[in-house]
Amino acid sequence: MFQLLENKMLVPNLNLAVFKAPEVAAAAQPGQFVIIRPREDSERIPMTISDWDAQRGTISVVYMVVGKTTAELAGLAAGDSAATVVGPLGNPMELAHFGHVVCVGGCYGIASIYPIALALKALDNRVTVVIEARSATMLYWQKKLRSAADELIVITRDGTQGLPGHIDRLPGILAGLAEPADRVIINGCNYLMMRGAQATRPLGIRTIVSLNTLMIDGTGMCGVCRCTVAGTTKFACVDGPHFDGHEVDWDEIARRRQAYLGEEVQTLVSSRAERMSP
Amino acid sequence: MSDQSGQVPKTPRKLDLHRREMPKQEAAVRRRNFSEVALGYAAETAVEEARRCLQCKKPSCVNGCPVNINIPAFIHAIAEGDFQSGVRTLKRDNSLPSVCGRVCPQEDQCEKECVLVKRRGEVAIGRLERFLGDWEAAQGPAELPERAQPTGKKVAIVGGGPAGLTAAADLVKLGHEVVIYEALHKMGGVLSYGIPEFRLPKRIVDREVEYLRRLGVEMRTDFVVGKTRSVDRLLETFDAVFLATGAGLPWFMEMDGNNMNGVYSANEYLTRVNLMKASDFPRASTPIKPHKRVAVLGGGNVAMDCARTALRLGGEVMVLYRRSRVEMPARLEEIENAEEEGVIFRYLTLPIRTLGDEQHRVSGLECLRMELGEPDASGRRSPVKVPNSEFILPFDCVIHAIGNSPNPLIAATTPDLSISRKGTIVVDPETGKSSKERVWAGGDVASGAATVINAMGAGRRAAKSIHDYLCQPDGWNCEK
Amino acid sequence: MSVRLKINGRWITAERGQTVLEAARANGIEIPTLCDYPGLPSHGSCRMCIVEIEGRANTPTACTTPVDDGMVVETDTAKVRELRQDLLRMLLAEHPAACLFCPENQACEECMVTLRKAGVTTGCHNCPADRQCSLQKIIEDSGLQSIAYPPRYRALRVEKYDPFFDRDYNLCVLCGRCIRVCESLHFTNILTYARRGSQTRVDTSFGRTHLEAGCSFCGACIDACPTGALWEKTRKWYGAPDGEVASVCPFCSLGCEIRLVHKNGSVIGALPGEGLPALCVKGRFGVPELVNHPDRLKDVLHVSAGEAVKSDWNEASRLAAEVLSGCAPDDFALIVSANCSSEDFYVANKFTRQVMRSAPVYLSAAARYRGGGQASARLLALSQPLEALESADLIFCLGLDAQYYQSVVEPRLRQAKERGAKLLTIHAGEHVPGRFADVWLQPQPFSEGEMINDLAEGRDDRGQLGAALHLLSEARKPVLIVGPDYLARLPEAVERLQKAAGAGLVALPAEGNLMGSLRAGIGAAPAGRLPRVLYLIGAALPHDLPGDSFVLIQNTHALQAELPHLFHEGLMLPMAAFSETDGSLVDQSGKMKCYSAAAAPPGEALPGWKILCQIAQALGKPGFDYGCVDDIRAEMAGQAAERPEISSPPEWIAAPGEHDYHGAPLDKWVAGLGDLQPSPQEEGLRVPVA
To answer: What is the ipTM score, two decimals?
Structure first.
């Protein structure tokens, strides 16, 4: 059992959970994820580790309430325990001195890009962080990100803060940078990563994305996380989750992600787990 | 049993070649439920069957057993009606009798070596083993064997499947401190996620695991060695490490369309149903689709498990195998069970392409006809493609059950471990010692995908070798 | 008196007293509105319907401006459009609508469909009202291209604690439709504006849950909401439905017309029929959970030696025929649920008479009427529709509780009271209309019959009873309205009172098609011993089944998961629910109401009558080859209706509960209903689960 030290809404529909998981915290590296099972009868779902404190033995995840299992997690209070928090899983993000790295985050990716930006900064990279949200009210962790980055650029769809628009602003942002970007790293929903990768492809900038696929065990055993990268099948859990965004078959990602939509809706209706979430 | 409680005749007057049948659920009934298929011997039948044993002076059956159980001794105990002593004999060599009695391929092991096999009357050793295991369970919590004095030595076992559980049982009895690390949230490895409820009820696995816990084995679930902590880090706090991580990386048949929705690895399909209880969806949280026409690719025991699971989920199921029935590696008993339940077998058929609809959901398989050619290295006649014999079969689900290789997680994170080309950890077959100091490995991770009992045998040998190592030179006070 | 006015250059005729909005709509001229709602008086708060009128300063709202002769109105000038856009910009300052103007919206929605399941709405894309939202449509029609003011997310907590619907007031545009619907159409005031100024929001008073505030969960506020602020839990995740089918609610005898909403071949919701203000909680929220429940029977099962084996219709019909052909008439009984369709009743009756030549069909619900079935039947024969309350000058509620079930009666009672009718009620416990009745007679439990008899005979003229007697004696048009419990338990006393008072009568039996069953002659049944072969259509298994019984269970749901183990030999035949088949029922006033299938039955389930026909045909009996319900109805029309009769059925027939559907309490299948109140039928009347 893994105790929750904190579980609260950061912005509408995005929650922060802090778990006591000393082993995971001791081993975590930027870009890795955990598999969480909120209750004994829950599904196993992957979540990216967004922060950790090896000293205190805690890890933080930022998650979107978007189905039965995340609703079950949201329904737990600080002091309650989750049945499973196992990890850190997946490969860490490739970190080195690249020069100028642009880290893009949207949705939960605003949080998961943070440890990556921090680590890149520590390796003497120039780090520009671009975060994207529907509206200013959906932005969070700006202070943390500002401390980790040389520059923070904000895009909101309704223009309530920073640049108005969507990830389609990325080419403009990249073109306007004082120092050209050597690498782009994108975290967030599959749509954001897909559009981001499409935007950087003509510019020839290496673009790393962190795929979120369906998973069960998260250790390479079941293969439900299969994706096609550069024409070959990969397991997102053990071969990834970080891939070259220009090589990912995005349509397949979207289709496989939706494979159980009908069942997911059915279980939301019949379980009413959602009822207890904030 | 009134007239059977007497002495077992030393030389039976007449050979009894009538192997006692074990009652089973009717095929028509069981094909729609997940309850266990075989129902086990009643005590009377077990005694009758046991009395058929000739109690050979040089029992060849023992050699056929990967863990060398003293088979004649436990059978003798059953024949005498002394089940308790039978259990004790059995458990000296096998800590999981209820499991092995169910899932071991006895026809290729102990029973194959029985002297009566030539006259087609081999003693049903597996069924008797199962009977004792179940009998013990019915008596309440199992009797705990004596534990040796604590040695102060610590052993980490990586993987809570059959090899790991067996090694843990042996080592803890010898007085060592044992911690098992399991990646999933439930102990048992393939016994929990792989073998279906109708073949091995999960309560039996739970009971065996509980027995080990009572013996003093510490179990850490949700812990992925190689990720949560590396083998090298384990070696900092443990005197020895036994790697028993199994063969968990699924293979897919090489063809187009494997990533369509509706294509599963056997692992995924079985894990959803067995570990995550998807057959109870939506009462359980993890879903599985109620597919209508299911293709299972492969001819091994896992393929049979998948086929029979899919049948129980309401589908029409076809097993596609590229050779013919005699070459199928699955146990004959499982093939027969599947046939009785209504699984359709299509032999000499090779799928070459997965077909899909506009939303990339599986709609069928394009296949080729095969014919049998010359025997290959394994002695089986190898299949040869019949040119221009393409045909299409409609399916909405394809399950690849063509095998697994070891999960590369440990190999990738343990630098000085010697790994074979097939991805297995290279070990000394006698001792299970790996190329790395203080590290042993056994079970499927070393042998490649094999049987439960082979893994248990490997666990036993490694435990012995680890014990020998721990008791070495400087005179630690271990009982040999 | 009519007037003529010109709208957008077109002369139209309108009635004096109509508003410009009404006149425009009557002539097919669209004016956007948000706060306007059918049946509610004009509110004029959203100002969407602003128009220009010649000779008037400013831009008046069409919904509050009466028509005048010679009036010249323009609804779509540049000025009006500009002002309307300004109004929308202001609304959007507090409505999360980033998706509306996002060029990526379409593609993002297609790629990220799973986001529909988001717990909190942060934009149209994950809003339950997406593509069903009035605001969304008005904005699209208005040509607005961007927002202007910095949006403020109010960060109000999404209320998910009530059993049937969620409230996200972050999406609320304060049109007040929910409050006004609750107040003016339902005469209750569960909802109100809380706080003031920029903090204003809709809430229950004192911020209680709806349950605590006394809400009856009629769902009218959800229907009225133009945005995604109020939404049913069971429908929230599906997105825009594929369509609606007109149907009838079978959960009580009122037979309210409903519209079944379907998507991807499943029923996902039920709305009040055209023109109905609301339904009760059962009809409004119960249908999707009931018909999509995992316990639905989907396969034909052959139960042998207590084990269920999957079979098919051919095999099952053959087996049934085999058993039935060797069965003596008095060894057989067929029991039906009062939730079945009239067509099912007719075919069941024909089956027992022509195929089995046995005793008539038993109605399981008749066991609820052991208190005097014949008197109940006589009362039912007198029963008038709810409209009878409209002309009454005194309404006397007998054992009626319209708090949750049959709550559609409440607004009628309130309406009557408002127009001056007297309201009397007799009920032992807390109930609706207890609190707002003129006289609430509160008998000791089990002495209700005595009290009604006292009233009928005018015996006691003191205290409350005296007051009631006085009001009764003064009334010229009294109407008694009898709830399900008294109708079953105390019909003789009620009948006495009805005669003594010369009152009209509205009977509200609990059973959806009790009247239909009586017409089919099913209520009458001579007592008999428990026969060897039982055919149960939507009825529960009797206690103490003999070992050699053969049971045919025809039902929509598996009443108990372990059912096959409760009997040794038999068949389980999956039946279509009312939403999956065509049929009809007869409401409490004797009116026939037809419904049509809105979805296909699950698995191998078939309409009830079809299953009977298959078995009859397997037995080689002619006259069971109906193609559809119309064939049955044609045959039914040719036969005289039976005299309604409810005779006491044999003891071995277990009485269903008041809120049963096909032999099990509705709250077994509909989770939220269990939260409302412990059902009085909770104990004692059920078939025990072994």
So the answer is: 0.94
Torsion of CA A17, A22, A28, A31, to 10 degrees: -10
Token digits for C636?
């039914």
Is residue C44 packed enough to be buried (19+ CB in 10 Å), middle (13-18) or exposed (0-12)? middle
User: Could you tell me if C151 lies within 8 Å of chain A, comparing CB atoms?
Assistant: yes
Give the dihedral sign, CA C284/C289/C292/C295. negative
Distance CA A1, CA C644 (A): 64
Q: Which residues of B26-58 are buried (b: 16+ CB within 10 A; e: fewer)?
A: ebbbbbbbbebbbebbeeebbbbbbbbbbeeee
**Complete DSSP assignment for C327-353:** --GGGEEEEE-TTS-HHHHHHHHHIII
A68 reaches B (C-beta below 8 A): yes
C294: left (phi over 0), alpha (psi -120 to 50) or beta: alpha
Which residue carries 């002297």 as its tokens? B115
* Contact between A274 and C119 using a beta-carbon 8 Å cutoff: yes
- Taking CB atoms and an 8 Å cutoff, what residues of chain C touch B311? none
A274 touches chain B (CB under 8 A): no
CB-based burial label for B3 (10 Å; 0-12, 13-18, 19+): exposed
pLDDT recorded at residue A278? 45
Q: Distance (Å, rounded) from C-alpha C477 to C-alpha A208?
A: 81
Query: Per-residue pLDDT tens for B363-416?
Result: 999 999 999 988 888 777 889 999 999 999 999 999 999 999 999 999 989 988
CA-nearest residue to B286 within chain A is: A43
- Whether the CB-CB separation of C84 and C51 falls below 8 Å is answered with no
pLDDT digits (tens, 9 = 90+) for C552-588: 999 999 876 556 667 789 999 999 999 999 999 999 9
Q: Is B86 helix (H, G, I), strand (E, B) or coil?
A: helix
Which positions 122-141 of A are in contact with C (Cβ < 8 Å)?
Answer: 134-138
Taking all residues of chain C, what is their mean pLDDT, rounded to a whole number?
A: 90
Do residues C278 and C218 make contact, with C-beta atoms less than 8 angstroms apart? Answer: yes
In degrees to the nearest 10, what's the CA dihedral of A40, A42, A44, A48? -100
Note the pLDDT tens digit of each residue in A97-124. Answer: 999 999 999 999 999 999 999 999 999 9
| pLDDT at site C683 | 36
Q: Is the CB of residue C309 less than 8 Å away from at least one CB of chain A?
A: no
Token pair belonging to B372 = 């049998």
Say whether C117 and A160 touch across the interface (CB within 8 A): no
Question: Is residue A273 within 8 Å of A68, Cβ to Cβ?
Answer: yes
* Cβ pair C270, C178 in contact under 8 A: no
Strand partners, C396: C424, C480
Query: Best mutation site among C110, C309, C562 for testing chain B: the one with the most B CBs within 10 Å?
Result: C309
Q: Which residues of C touch B27 (CB under 8 A)?
A: none
SS3 (DSSP) at C443? coil
The CA radius of gyration of chain C, in Å to the nearest whole number, is 28
Measured N-to-C along each axis, helices B71-79 and B83-93 cross at an angle, to the nearest 10 degrees, of: 170
Whole-number CA gyration radius for chain B: 23
Sign for the pseudo-dihedral over CA of B112, B115, B121, B124: negative
- pLDDT tens per residue across span C508-527: 999 999 999 998 888 777 77
The two tokens of residue B161 are 């499947």
CA pair distance C75, C60, nearest whole angstrom: 11
Q: What share of chain C is helix, strand, coil (3-state, %, to 5)?
A: 35, 20, 50
**The three-state (H, E, C) secondary structure of C502-520, written as one string:** CCEEEECCCCCCHHHHHHC
Residue B233 tokens read as 């880090």
Distance between A218 CA and the closest CA of chain B, angstroms? 9
